[in-house]
C-alpha cells in the first residue's frame, strides 16, 4: 500500500473545538488527511471520534477552529455547503438508506437530483456500482428487504455514485451481525486499494491494521496518537492507548 | 314519518343552496389550509431560526383563538382597513387561517415520525432543505399524517357552520330560515346531521384509501 501521498492535503482540521453543553467533545483537534490516504480513527466510546467524522461534512457544526476541504474552508450553510457535501461521501452506522425508495433509486437519487445527471446515465453507473459492491441482483428491492450487510454495501454504493473526492465512514460495521462485517470491510478495503481518500471511524482493528495508512487514537475529545498502524499496534506511546488496546485485544 | 320527509321536500332548494355553500367553503379552505399549513410546517422544521419562531408564533396565536373570534376579526375588523371583501370570502379566509395552524401541526408530527437519519443521509448527499423535505421526509411522513389530517378536515367541515353567524348561507344557517317558515326544528336538525354524515363519508373513504395505498409503499 502506498504510504506517501502527494500534493496538498485534502482535508485539514486546525485547532477544532466543539462542545455539547459542558462536554468538550473535540478538544483542540488538528489533523490533515492527504489525497488517497486512509485514516482510521479509533478510541473508546464518547471519545469524540464520530463527532470528528461528522464535522468534516458539517453534519456537526464546530465552535472554533477551521476545517478546510480541498483547499476551501467549509461553507457555513446553504447551497455552498450542499455542494461541499455532494463531494464528500458519507456512510452511517445505521445505513440510513431511503426507506421509500428501491436500492437502485437510492443510488441514483443523488446524481439525478443534486448533480442533475441524466437518469439513464445515473442508472447505468448505479447498476455498475451495485455490481461492484456485489448486490446488483437486489437493485429493485426496498432497503428493508435486504440484510444489514447488503444495506450497508448499498449505502456505500449510494455515496460512491456521487463520485466523491473523499469518503467518511462513521462506524460502518457497528450495527451489523458479526457474519456480515466481513463483506462490508471487503468493499471498504477494495475502495482503499483503489486510492479513495477515506476517514474511517471503526472498532475493527483488523481493518485498521491492513487497510489504513494512519491510525488516529482519540480519548476525551483529544487526538492522543497519530501513527502508522504498525507503530500504533506494536508500540503505542500513550497510557490511554495502551489501556484501550489491552482491553480490546485480550478478547 | 311523512312529516319528516315533507320538511326536506318542501324546502329542497334551501337545503341544496346551504349545503352547496358548505361544500364550497370546505373545498376552498381545505386547499388553502393544506398549502398554507404545509408552508408553516416547513417553516417549523426549517434550519432558519426566524422562520421557526414565525411558524411557532402563528400556531400558538391562531390555534388558541376561538374560531368565532377569527371570523369576527375578518368580518368586522378587516373592512375597517378599507379592504372590501364579502362575507363568503371572509369566511373562507377565516377557516383557512384557522385550519392552517392545525394542518401545520399534523405535518410537523408526521415529519417527526421519520427517522432523523433519513434527513441526515439526504443532507450528506448534498440535497438542499427543500429537496430533503419534498423528496425524502414528506413522502415518508404522509402515511402517519393521514388519520390526524382527516380529523382536522372533518372538524373543519363542521366548523364551516360558524359562517352562519356571519351572514353566510350555508348548512348551519338552515335552521334559522326554517324557524321563520315554522318548520319543526327537530326534523330540520336531523336532516342537517344526515347531510353532514353524507359529506363526511367520502372523507372517511379517502382516508382508508390513502392509508392502504401508502402502507405498501415501503
Write the layout of secondary structure elements.
The complex is a heterodimer of chains A (251) and B (218).
Chain A (H helix, E strand, L loop, with lengths): L10 E10 L2 E11 L4 E5 L6 H7 L8 E6 L2 E2 L4 H9 L1 E4 L11 H11 L5 H14 L15 H13 L5 E5 L7 H16 L3 E5 L3 H7 L2 E6 L2 E6 L1 H6 L4 H11 L2
Parallel strand pairs in A: 3-8, 3-9, 6-7, 7-8
Antiparallel strand pairs in A: 1-2, 1-4, 4-5, 9-10
Chain B lengths: L1 H9 L1 H33 L4 H15 L3 H11 L9 H26 L3 H9 L4 H31 L14 H7 L4 H31 L3
Helix pairs in contact in B: 2-3, 2-5, 2-7, 3-5, 4-5, 5-7, 6-7, 7-9, 8-9
What does this entry look like structurally?
- With 251 residues, chain A is an alpha/beta fold.
- Chain A has a domain at 8-96 and 168-247: 3-Layer(aba) Sandwich (Rossmann fold), CATH 3.40.50.
- Chain A is built from nine helices and ten strands.
- In chain A, the strands form two sheets. A six-stranded mixed beta sheet of chain A has the order 6-7-8-3-9-10, with helices on both faces.
- In chain A, helix 3 (103-113) packs across helix 4 (119-132) and helix 4 crosses helix 5 (148-160).
- Chain A is globular, with a radius of gyration of 18 Å.
- The longest helix of chain B is centred in the first third of the chain and has 33 residues, at 12-44.
- The relative contact order of chain B is 0.15.
- Chain B starts with a helix and ends with a helix.
- The A-B interface holds A 57, 59, 77, 79, 82-90, 92, 94, 96-100, 109-110, 113-114, 142, 144, 155, 158-159, 162 and B 47, 115, 117-118, 120-128, 131, 135-136, 139-140, 217-218.
- Chain A: It is found in: Cell membrane.
- Chain A: GO terms for molecular function: ATP binding; ATP hydrolysis activity; ATPase-coupled polar amino acid-transporter activity.
- Chain A: It catalyses: a polar amino acid(out) + ATP + H2O = a polar amino acid(in) + ADP + phosphate + H(+).
CATH structural class of chain B? Mainly Alpha
In angstroms, what separates the terminal alpha carbons of chain B? 52 Å
> Which fold name fills CATH's third level, the topology of the domain at 8-96 and 168-247 in chain A?
Rossmann fold
Report the portion of residues of chain A in β strands.
15-25%
CATH architecture of chain B: Orthogonal Bundle
Number of strands of chain B: 0
CATH superfamily of chain B: MetI-like
Strand-residue proportion of chain B: under 5%
**What overall form of chain B do the CA principal axes indicate?**
flat
SSE class of chain A: alpha/beta
Q: Can you summarize the main beta sheet of chain A?
A: 6 strands, mixed
Low-confidence stretches of chain A: none
> What would you call the structural class of chain B?
mainly alpha
Amino acid at each position: 500500500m502506498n504510504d506517501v501521498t502527494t500534493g496538498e492535503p485534502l482535508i485539514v482540521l486546525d485547532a477544532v473545538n466543539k462542545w455539547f453543553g459542558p462536554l468538550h467533545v473535540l478538544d483542540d483537534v488538528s489533523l490533515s488527511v492527504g489525497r488517497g490516504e486512509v485514516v482510521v480513527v479509533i478510541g473508546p466510546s464518547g471519545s469524540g471520534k464520530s463527532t470528528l467524522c461528522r464535522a468534516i461534512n458539517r453534519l456537526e457544526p464546530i465552535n472554533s477552529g477551521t476545517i478546510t476541504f480541498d483547499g476551501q474552508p467549509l461553507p457555513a450553510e446553504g447551497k455552498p455547503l450542499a455542494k461541499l457535501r455532494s463531494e464528500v461521501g458519507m456512510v452511517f452506522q445505521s445505513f440510513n438508506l431511503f426507506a421509500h425508495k428501491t436500492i437502485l433509486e437510492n443510488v441514483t437519487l443523488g446524481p439525478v437530483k443534486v448533480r442533475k445527471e441524466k437518469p439513464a446515465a445515473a442508472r447505468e453507473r448505479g447498476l455498475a456500482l451495485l455490481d461492484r459492491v456485489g448486490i446488483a441482483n437486489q437493485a429493485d428491492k426496498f432497503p428493508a428487504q435486504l440484510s444489514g450487510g447488503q444495506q450497508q454495501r448499498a449505502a456505500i454504493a449510494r455515496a460512491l455514485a456521487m463520485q466523491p473526492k473523499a469518503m467518511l465512514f462513521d462506524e460502518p460495521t457497528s450495527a451489523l451481525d458479526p457474519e456480515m462485517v466481513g463483506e462490508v470491510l471487503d468493499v471498504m478495503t477494495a475502495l482503499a486499494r483503489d486510492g479513495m481518500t477515506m476517514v474511517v471511524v471503526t472498532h475493527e482493528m483488523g481493518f485498521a491494521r491492513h487497510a489504513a495508512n494512519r491510525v488516529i487514537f482519540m480519548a476525551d475529545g483529544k487526538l492522543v496518537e497519530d501513527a502508522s498502524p504498525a507503530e500504533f499496534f506494536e508500540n503505542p506511546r500513550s497510557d490511554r492507548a495502551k489501556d484501550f488496546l489491552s482491553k480490546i485485544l485480550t478478547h | 314519518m311523512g312529516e319528516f320527509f315533507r320538511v326536506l321536500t318542501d324546502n329542497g332548494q334551501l337545503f341544496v343552496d346551504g349545503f352547496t355553500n358548505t361544500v364550497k367553503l370546505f373545498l376552498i379552505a381545505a386547499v388553502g389550509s393544506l398549502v398554507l399549513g404545509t408552508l408553516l410546517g416547513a417553516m417549523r422544521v426549517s434550519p432558519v431560526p426566524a422562520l421557526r419562531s414565525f411558524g411557532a408564533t402563528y400556531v400558538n396565536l391562531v390555534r388558541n383563538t376561538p374560531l368565532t373570534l377569527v371570523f369576527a376579526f375578518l368580518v368586522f375588523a378587516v373592512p375597517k382597513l378599507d379592504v372590501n371583501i364579502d362575507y363568503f370570502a371572509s369566511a373562507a379566509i377565516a377557516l383557512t387561517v384557522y385550519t392552517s395552524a392545525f394542518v401545520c401541526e399534523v405535518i410537523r408530527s408526521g415529519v417527526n415520525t421519520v427517522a432523523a437519519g433519513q434527513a441526515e443521509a439526504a443532507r450528506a448527499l448534498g440535497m438542499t432543505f427543500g429537496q430533503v423535505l419534498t423528496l425524502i421526509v414528506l413522502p415518508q411522513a404522509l402515511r402517519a399524517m393521514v388519520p390526524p389530517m382527516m380529523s382536522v378536515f372533518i372538524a373543519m367541515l363542521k366548523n364551516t357552520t360558524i359562517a352562519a353567524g356571519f351572514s353566510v348561507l350555508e348548512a348551519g344557517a338552515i335552521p334559522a330560515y326554517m324557524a321563520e317558515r315554522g318548520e319543526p326544528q327537530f326534523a330540520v336538525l336531523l336532516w342537517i346531521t344526515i347531510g353532514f354524515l353524507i359529506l363526511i363519508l367520502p372523507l372517511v373513504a379517502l382516508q382508508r384509501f390513502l392509508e392502504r395505498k401508502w402502507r405498501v409503499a415501503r
